[in-house]
Amino acid sequence: MPLRGSRTAGPWGRRPPPPLLLLLVALAACAARASEITFELPDNAKQCFYEEIAQGTKCTLEFQVITGGHYDVDCRLEDPDGTVLYKEMKKQYDSFTFTASRNGTYKFCFSNEFSTFTHKTVYFDFQVGEDPPLFPSENRVTALTQMESACVSIHEALKSVIDYQTHFRLREAQGRSRAEDLNTRVAYWSIGEAIILLVVSVGQVFLLKSFFSDKRTTTTRVGS
């Protein structure tokens, strides 16, 4: 599921951009082949995704619950015949790698049907196949040059950087959600304590006032 973007004019006008920039853009395009989606999963809901995969293709499914409830979700992966390849219940995050046994449409679903009132935010990364080699040359006789070796090293380093950035963004989003939830609970608890303190204070004032108030008694004489 590739993403398409609009093309905008660069700051170089009609002049070609520097070769180093072209190299970095090409490396980034090669590294960004995975399908990454973040979506809302309501309570008592189930969301499924489908992917056409060729036989013998190596695939990896990685997911993580970012916000909602106990940060858990059910996940299920099936092949075109309906055989369950992967199934986990109430998982916060996990990763599963498999090789397609046949051609067809593979289905993976996320379920929040066990939750009655809490919706979740789920992130998943589904990688189909492996990145093509940076210098695809099957009948290559000579070894890689120093520049080609440096490009391969930069390519691998950029892929690692992208993975680290993704995980750090997920952890930051999850931590922000926990902090906001905790802040809401603390605010409600503080308001409740303030109301209770006000009621107790007013009650004590009226109680002390009743102790020091004069109680007049009237005497009634009964005539003979």
Automatic annotation (TrEMBL):
Q: What is its main location?
A: membrane
Per UniProt, what is one Pfam family of this protein? EMP24_GP25L
Q: How does it sit in the membrane?
A: Single-pass type I membrane protein
- Provide the alphabetized UniProt keywords: Cytoplasmic vesicle, Endoplasmic reticulum, Glycoprotein, Golgi apparatus, Membrane, Protein transport, Signal, Transmembrane, Transmembrane helix, Transport
Residue spans crossing the bilayer: 186-208
The family assignment reads: Belongs to the EMP24/GP25L family.
Q: What does this protein do?
A: Potential role in vesicular protein trafficking, mainly in the early secretory pathway. Appears to play a role in the biosynthesis of secreted cargo including processing and post-translational modifications.
Protein name from the UniProt record: Transmembrane emp24 domain-containing protein 7
